[in-house]
Amino acid sequence: MLVQCLRLHSFRRFETVEFTPRPGFNLITGDNGSGKTSLLEALHLLAHGRSFRGRVRDGLVRQGDPALQAYVEWVLPDQTPHRAGLRHTGSQWQARLNGQDVHLISQLCEALAVVSFEPGSHALVDGGSEGRRRFLDWGMFHVEHDFLPLWRRYARALKQRNALLRQTRVDAQLEAWEYELVHAGEAITALRDAYISALQAPLHHLLPRLLPDAGAITLSLQPGWRRHELALADALLLSRERDQTLGYTSLGPHRADLKLQLRDLPGRESLSRGQTKQLALCLLLAQATHLAQALGHWPVLQLDDLGSELDRRHQACVLDVLAQTDAQVVITGTEPLSALPSSPLPVSLFHVEHGVLRQQD
User: Fold this and answer.
1) Are 51 and 41 in contact (CB under 8 A)?
2) 3.40.50.300, 2.60.120.10, 2.30.30.240, 1.20.140.20: which CATH number matches 1-113+300-361?
3) Most exposed among 105, 185, 269, 340, judged by the fewest C-beta atoms under 10 Å?
4) How far apart are CA 252 and CA 183, in angstroms?
5) Mind giving me the DSSP string for 136-185?
6) Backbone phi and psi for residue 324, each to the nearest 5 degrees, phi listed first
7) Which CATH architecture describes the domain 121-298?
């Protein structure tokens, strides 16, 4: 996947900007607050339907303007051209994909695959379970065609069960929605199990290079209920009275988590800040590798402010790993990275200053 052009209007501090990344490495430099991260944020928004820095209404739209606009063109390895555009006011959005109106944001996200490593990525390791569920579900969304319909079915049943739990008396419909919840939930859990198993191979390859102190890693799924003791249907039945008191469904796949066990290092809560970032990057690159194997082409890889996230030795290790992929890579930093000139891949340099982006020779 090769992004050829990204155009933004009223996006954070940019009134208008155009970014034309090239194959290989693309390094964007600029002072802190110059807007370089916004370019990565825009691609992430188009590919994920959300920013990695919060909600759209929290500052993405340039102050005083009614809406942001983002437009992107890219090609796949067969040279098939694609284009997409998004207009977002902060509360409402409109989008088009290849000249057609988009009615579900998932249609836009399915077309463009972007994996981003940014200052908040450490939460994938040391944050709450929601981020790790999102990590799993985004990966499955791109490689498992059955996942999205199952998740929509599950989300609808969960919403209905929660509404019924808040009623004074148990409605006769509760069992019917629990049946839906169980069938969709068990299927989602099976897909998550298989996906986690598939991530082990790329992680086994990446971990000795990016976090050798770990020795080895084992991933497992905490499914959201005591699966080793109870089927989901029985767990929901036994928790019904408690859930009525709470007013919501307290267990199930929407409460699942990804468990990370490192052979030679303590639990994730005891990792240093640097180790946490290295492990998060391993997970994201493993996901990108698996995606490349499943789709036949690499997603776009974005690394925001790499120079401040990792020390020079680890930067060199990361760049060496990236240089051996066929991915288009976009990296931001306040200054050029010393390890980049030795890369076998082409390197394109860009600089942002006073809201203006320029390509450098």
Assistant:
1) yes
2) 3.40.50.300
3) 269
4) 11
5) HHHHHHHH-TTHHHHHHHHHHHHHHHHHHHTSSS--TTHHHHHHHHHHHH
6) -95, 5
7) Up-down Bundle (1.20)
Sheet holding 356-360, edge to edge: 114-117, 300-303, 329-333, 25-29, 347-353, 356-360
Structure tokens at 84: 């997409």
Give the dihedral sign, CA 133/199/106/56.
positive
253-306: pLDDT as tens digits: 999 999 999 998 877 777 888 889 999 999 999 999 999 999 999 999 999 988
CA distance 307 to 29: 11
- HSE (side-chain half, CA atoms, 13 Å) at 117: 31
The token duo for 130 is 């929601």
Residue showing tokens 């099976």: 190
- Pick the more confident residue, 155 or 360: 155
Instruction: Return the number of other C-beta atoms located less than 10 Å from residue 247's C-beta.
Output: 12
For residue 218 the two structure tokens come to: 């084992």
d(CA 85, CA 43): 11
